[in-house]
Each structure stands twice: as structure tokens, then as C-alpha cells.
């Protein structure tokens, strides 16, 4: 790993003039070090330059022309998970989220990648933000899993020898079921009983294909509590993955498409059930602030976005909740970083789960520590992600809970992977699915 002294020996290019990290935000850091204990990359790597404080030092050095924006500095920005735990912890209110976002867009524009790195990133950003392209892979993946090829690949370990990143991607592959091939939610779903609100629902990319049950549960919970649900079929990706990795033009194009898809729907709120997506949707005003046609639209759109749990907790449940089984059920809720740190939503999911009769909620150690998923981080930085995933699963299991509630598809895939690697068979569900089961009076078999 490089350090500041090594970087300053080579005064090459710095940040360009297009939205570099703001100096006033850099200067807000007093270098107290409170962020170090909560930073997952610092915990694993143990290097100052892989902490928020170290990265801010580096941003300042590049901004002042004392260090180059080069491969040596880029690796430290790449090691950041973007979990935003440091933002929650910082006593000085440093807006590290804005700093790392601006820096990543600078890196994407100005720092060439190695060919293998560029190729892998191109694969990710040409595939994951496009549900139609993902859908074309469903049948091959279904055969890959059902014919036993996946079992063979994982038992031989040859893929990891060929490419640790490809192996990490394969290890995260969710189970493809017949539900993955269905996309049968209507454009408009009426409420059950008296209409209280008219809301839009965003389906997501990975969510709509591999976690379609979560979308279906979300619609049922909303309609059961007096919401008319609108689902525009022209919606695409929310832009979270490209935005978090500095893909400026792609993120902006996807944001415009999403805004256009909801134009004229006259909804009271726009509901999202994936934590990372929700954080980006609420940032549309920032993403499109320089677009004269969309800046105002983006602000208005972002102002309507609500996480599903946030919205339901705020408007209140009107549907009757039933026990999930005859005997008490212990659940551990897993905080998704972009819900906890990005959107400041922590109490609401717990409040909703506690309203289900017979549920006891457990709290894990280090609840605020990232699980290592962080969008596509677990594919780009698999070694760090694996250590964090193992820690997270250990902490969840140590609660003795019988079921894990996870509000984000990336977190769910990461946790399921490390449960499998540890040989643990424990049910994992989205909190909205648990509310849906409770409202419908369905029992859960563990």
C-alpha cells in the first residue's frame, strides 16, 4: 500500500475542473479519528490511507497539487465501501458521502484502469443496471443450477483460480426459480377497502428478477393498508450502481428515465424496498442538479421517494396482524448501510416488526458495521468483502435468532453466501415479507 510521502514524489495530474471534491468539505475534517473504529475497510486493511480520514488527507493532497490522481491513490478510494458509517459517527459533521462521490466520478474520468479491471467493470455496468439484459440470462442460469453445473464449479474451485472476481460474482448468484420468469404485476392495483393514498412502486433490477416475492409482498402490504399502487412499466434501473462507481453519464441517463416513467402518475409517494436504491433515488436532485430540463423534476421526484418501511411506519398500519406461528419467533434485523447511514432509517423497521404478535427482536453486535456487499464491492474487492461478510454472519448467528430480516437484496445475497459457506441453514426474509405473511395470516416454516 502507498502512503502520502510516496504519492507526493510524483506531481502528476490532479482533479479536473468538473465538480472536484469541495475544499470547504475537505477542510471540515479535523482529523480526530472517530471514524476509524466504524470504517469497515480500515478494520480489515488496517491502513490509515484506507480510512475516511486518510482518504480526505489524500483528496486534499491531490486538490492542492501535492499528490497525483494515479493508480497509487485510486486504490485507496476503491477500497472504500461507501457504507457512510463515518458520516453517522463524525462529530464534526463532515460530509464524506459527498467527498467520496465526487472523487469517484473524478477517478472514473481521469484514471485509466488495467485491461482486466476495465473489462470486468464493463461487464458489470453493461449488465446489472438493465433488467431486460439480466432477464435474457435467466434460462441459462436456471439450467446451470438445476443440471448440477453450479455444484461442480463450486466443488472444484477452478473459477477462483481463474479469476477471484468472477468467482465472487458466481458465489453471489441467487437461486433462479420459476417466479424469476414472471413479471405479472399490473400497472395499477386497487387498495383493499377505503383508499388512503396513491403510491408508485419501483421494482428494481436484481429485485424484480431474483427477489420478485419482495415486490409482490410490498404491493400486498401497501394495498392492504389502503394504498392504490401504480407501477409504470417504462421504469428501469434507479442508477445506484453506476452512480456509486462514478459512471456519471450512465447514472444521469437512468435517473432521467426513472423520472420520466413516473411523470403524470400523480402519486403521493414513490416507494422503494431496496436500501441502496432508495438512497440514490433520494439523491436525484444532486445527480441532475446541472441539467436545466431535469433539475427541478429531480428535486420533486426525490422529495416523494420513501423506503417501504419508512412509509408504512409513517402512515400507520390499518390491516390486522396475526402471529407468524403458534409459538414465539425470535428475529434479528440486519441494518443495511444505505438505510441506516444513508437514509437515517433504523427505528421504523424495528417498530413494524415488533407489531407482529409473538415476535421478539434481537440486536447483533456491531449492528452498524457493513456486511461487505456495498453494491458491487463484493465483486470488485472480494477479499475485504469476504472478511466483512463472515464477521456479519457470525454476529447475526450469535444472537440466537431463528430468522434474519434484511431490507436490501445485496445484503441478503452477501449474508446468504456466508451462511452457506459456514454450513448454516437459517431463513432470511425482507421485513416487508414478514408483514405480508402476518397480514395474510400465513404461517412461517423454519
How would you characterize this protein structure?
- The termini are far apart.
- With 446 residues, the chain is of the alpha/beta class.
- The radius of gyration is 22 Å and the shape is globular.
- The strands form two sheets. The protein has a five-stranded mixed beta sheet.
- It has four domains: 21-108, Fumarate Reductase Iron-sulfur Protein, Chain B, domain 2 (Orthogonal Bundle), CATH 1.10.1060.10; 113-174, no CATH class; 181-313, Glutathione S-transferase Yfyf (Class Pi), Chain A, domain 2 (Up-down Bundle), CATH 1.20.1050; 327-438, Rossmann fold (3-Layer(aba) Sandwich).
- The model is unreliable at 1-11 (pLDDT under 50).
- Strand 8, helix 26 and strand 9 (427-429) form a beta-alpha-beta unit.
- It has helices at 4-7, 23-27, 40-45, 52-63, 71-78, 85-89, 96-110, 115-127, 131-136, 138-146, 149-156, 158-162, 164-171, 206-210, 212-224, 240-244, 248-262, 275-281, 284-287, 295-304, 308-315, 337-340, 347-354, 377-380, 382-397, 409-421, 431-440; strands at 188-189, 197-201, 227-230, 269-272, 305-307, 329-333, 359-362, 403-405, 427-429.
- Helix 4 crosses helix 7, helix 15 (212-224) crosses helix 27 and helix 25 packs across helix 26.
- It has 27 helices and nine strands.
First-to-last CA distance: 45 Å
Mean pLDDT: 92
CATH architecture of the largest domain: Up-down Bundle
CA-based shape: globular
Q: What is the count of DSSP helices, taking H or I runs of 4+ residues?
A: 27
Structural class: alpha/beta
The CATH topology annotation of the largest domain reads as Glutathione S-transferase Yfyf (Class Pi), Chain A, domain 2
* Count of strand segments: 9
Q: Strand content of the residues, in percent? A: 5-15%
Instruction: Give the helix proportion (percent range).
Output: 40-55%
Q: Point out poorly predicted stretches.
A: 1-11
Order of strands, widest sheet? 1-3-2-4-5
Report the biggest beta sheet as strand number plus sense, adding barrel if it closes: 5 strands, mixed
Which CATH class of the largest domain applies here? Answer: Mainly Alpha
As for the number of domains, it is 4
Rg from Cα = 22 Å
Amino acid at each position: 500500500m502507498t502512503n502520502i510521502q510516496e504519492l507526493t514524489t510524483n506531481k502528476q495530474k490532479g482533479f479536473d475542473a468538473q465538480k472536484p471534491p469541495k475544499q470547504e468539505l475537505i477542510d471540515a475534517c479535523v482529523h480526530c479519528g472517530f471514524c476509524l473504529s466504524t470504517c469497515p475497510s480500515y478494520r480489515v486493511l488496517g491502513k490509515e490511507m484506507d480510512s475516511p480520514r486518510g482518504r480526505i488527507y489524500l483528496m486534499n493532497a491531490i486538490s492542492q497539487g501535492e499528490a497525483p490522481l494515479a493508480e497509487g491513490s485510486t486504490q485507496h478510494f476503491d477500497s472504500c465501501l461507501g457504507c457512510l458509517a463515518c458520516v453517522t459517527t463524525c462529530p464534526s459533521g463532515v460530509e464524506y458521502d459527498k467527498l467520496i462521490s465526487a472523487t469517484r466520478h473524478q477517478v472514473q474520468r481521469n484514471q485509466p484502469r488495467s485491461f482486466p479491471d476495465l473489462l470486468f467493470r464493463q461487464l458489470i455496468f453493461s449488465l446489472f443496471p438493465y433488467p431486460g439484459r439480466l432477464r435474457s440470462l435467466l434460462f441459462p442460469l436456471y439450467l446451470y443450477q438445476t443440471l448440477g453445473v453450479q455444484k461442480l464449479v463450486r466443488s472444484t474451485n477452478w473459477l477462483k483460480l481463474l479469476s477471484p472476481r468472477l468467482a465472487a460474482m458466481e458465489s453471489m448468484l441467487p437461486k433462479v426459480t420459476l417466479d424469476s420468469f414472471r413479471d405479472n404485476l399490473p400497472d395499477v392495483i386497487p387498495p383493499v377497502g377505503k383508499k388512503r393514498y396513491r403510491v408508485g412502486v419501483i421494482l428494481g433490477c436484481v429485485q424484480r428478477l431474483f427477489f420478485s416475492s419482495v415486490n409482490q409482498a410490498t404491493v400486498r402490504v401497501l394495498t392492504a393498508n389502503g394504498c392504490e399502487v401504480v407501477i409504470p412499466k417504462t421504469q428501469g434501473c434507479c442508477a445506484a450502481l453506476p452512480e456509486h462507481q462514478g459512471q456519471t453519464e450512465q447514472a444521469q441517463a437512468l435517473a432521467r428515465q426513472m423520472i420520466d416513467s413516473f411523470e403524470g402518475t400523480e402519486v403521493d409517494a414513490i416507494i422503494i424496498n431496496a436500501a441502496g436504491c432508495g438512497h440514490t433515488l433520494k439523491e436525484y436532485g444532486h445527480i441532475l442538479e446541472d441539467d436545466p430540463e431535469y433539475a427541478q423534476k429531480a428535486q420533486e421526484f426525490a422529495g416523494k421517494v420513501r423506503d417501504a418501511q419508512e412509509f408504512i411506519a409513517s402512515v400507520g398500519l390499518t390491516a390486522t396482524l396475526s402471529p407468524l406461528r403458534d409459538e414465539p419467533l425470535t428475529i434479528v434485523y440486519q441494518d443495511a448501510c444505505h438505510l441506516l447511514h444513508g437514509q437515517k432509517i433504523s427505528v421504523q423497521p424495528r417498530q413494524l416488526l415488533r407489531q407482529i404478535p409473538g415476535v421478539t427482536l434481537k440486536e447483533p453486535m456491531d449492528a452498524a458495521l457493513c456486511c461487505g456487499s456495498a453494491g458491487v464491492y463484493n465483486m470488485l474487492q472480494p477479499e475485504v468483502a469476504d472478511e466483512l461478510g463472515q464477521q456479519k454472519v457470525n454476529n447475526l448467528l450469535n444472537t440466537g435468532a431463528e430468522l434474519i430480516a434484511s431490507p436490501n437484496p445485496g445484503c441478503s445475497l452477501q449474508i446468504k453466501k456466508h451462511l452457506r459457506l459456514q454450513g448454516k441453514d437459517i431463513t432470511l426474509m425482507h421485513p416487508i415479507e414478514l408483514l405480508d405473511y402476518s397480514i395474510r395470516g400465513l404461517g412461517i416454516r423454519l
